[in-house]
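User: Last request for today: this protein with sulfopyruvate, please.
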Amino acid sequence: MEDESLKATLDVDSYQKLKKIDNPELIRFITRYRELCSPDDVFVCTGSREDVQYIRAEAIRSGEEKELAIEGHTVHFDGYYDQARDKKNTKFLLPPDVDLGPGINAMDRDEGLKEIHEILRGIMRGHRMYVLFFCLGPLNSQFSIPAVQITDSSYVAHSECLLYRQGYTEFVRLGRSNRFFKFVHSAGELDARKTSINIAKRRIYIDLETETVYSTNTQYGGNTIGLKKLALRLALNRASKEGWLTEHMFIMGVHGPDGRVTYFTGAFPSLCGKTSTSMLKGESIVGDDIAYLRNKNGVIRAVNPEKGIFGIIQGVNSRDDPIIWNALHAPGEIIFSNVLVTDAKMPYWSGNDSSDPPTRGYNHAGEWVAGARDEDGNEIPVSHPNARFTLDMHLLENLDPELDNPEGVEIRGIIYGGRDSDTRVPVEESFDWVHGVITMGAALESETTAATLGTGGERKINPMSNLDFLSIPIGRYIENHLRFGMVDNPPRIFAVNYFLKDADGNFLNARNDKAVWLKWMELRTHNEIGAIKTPTGLIPRYNDLKKLFLIVRGLEYQEEAYTKQFTVRVPENLAKLERVEKFYRTKVPDTPQTLFIVLEEQRKRLIQAREEFGDYISPFALADAGL
Ligand code: SPV
Ligand code: MN
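Assistant: Here's the final one, the structure of the complex with sulfopyruvate:
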């Protein structure tokens, strides 16, 4: 009957495409939302070149994207009040017996399902419904999860074709055994600029039970691209049941001596250098945002569920980000969002160093002139701070060849980074897995940028930089990490801090010093370079860094700079421990006891060292730990 119903409303071509997939659950899902949402017609995408090109052409024809001067480039705008993830209206739908703990936005499942299905009723009238199939992770891989996306936005469909591996063949291959994620999205009614009108009915509801996410009346990618942060939450919940990890991490290859490539993952809250680290010249990128990690016969391996980048464009300039810059200026399929479009149909964004800033153009607010203000009296910047570019990583010159390896890459190091003006040294290794998970991952903090006040901002704890996406209680999430590292040789855990300042508020490091830290970490994972033991971890020796600075950056690294950067700041470290402990004692009822024990040990080491060396301890005063 479902089959008949589908046949009656689909054109022959779409019907034939779906017929090849033997999965009644899938057919039921598509039938249900076609009936409920009432689109004018349906387009089923098999991922063929022809189908994908059709979607791109439709994005332009419908007006959701407009062509720019360089071949392949388009621009999309989200509504003025739809420029970021909507945390308030993103909720887990939970049955009465499930509790994710405080700090995770949730509501009653039945109530939420009822509400969202009322919103979805008839929402696609006048629109086309796209049905797309993807695979989160390489095809034919134990890591991977197939996913189906229903959307009435050709921009969302187009974005996903750039960001994710096509999965139609996986659906055909897996048939009834397929356990896939499901996403239903509608941008809802659109205005003349093709942006969502009914923002008051913007909802992102996540049903863990059926692994389905519903998203309505929004276009911004973080709310609508089901396979990105919506799938991250579903995958994290599934991973927790199956003993693997879903992380908000890049994956990159760091190039060591003699052509050796060592893979690292890295977790950084937004605006802390995550993409720029994964994009460093001379290294190679596997992914910039999400990683699935598994223990494969005692070895930790990871894949990127994505194949593209939805990256922040603000601040991208030719000097600091040459690889992205080159890609953004060459012909190729790129969607720019919420940038300014000049009269010459070129994209422009804050921090772009190509020419004088334009004084007029078209941006997320519509026709724009310099100094224009919005309804609330706020000055409208040339581009939105969350303006982005979307591209397939195959456009990048530094794409790592292992991207599609179904076995993933072996991870030898995990890096946690935050914006920290006064506490942590620039790079530091943990004593062991548990110490790293607790004092570097679970204790990850970042300062909100308070540039206008000229002071360090407010610090926010963001465990593993994954707090926004946790779909299990925080304590259980940390417990999963502790357990995950119980293998013979777990990856080494490192913390980096690119934002350390001196007492006068000057940064102690140059932006590209991170290139040196990466090489040091790479050598550490192969036991090829020594370290100094401090109360909080293992830090580089001066002589080693001196050599590396010369090789990597061609610079003479001064002893004075080293001393300032790597001085152990005892009072600040003790204050940090207190903040972290307070957070877990008051906000995380299921915190594993190990966390408090490890924090306490660190406190004791700091206090003991203070007795011997004082509040600020020069790295030269401390003992060498050897390899
Ligand atoms: C992030 O904010 O971490 C992003 C962009 O990667 S979003 O898709 O909005 O999550
Ligand atoms: Mn992200």
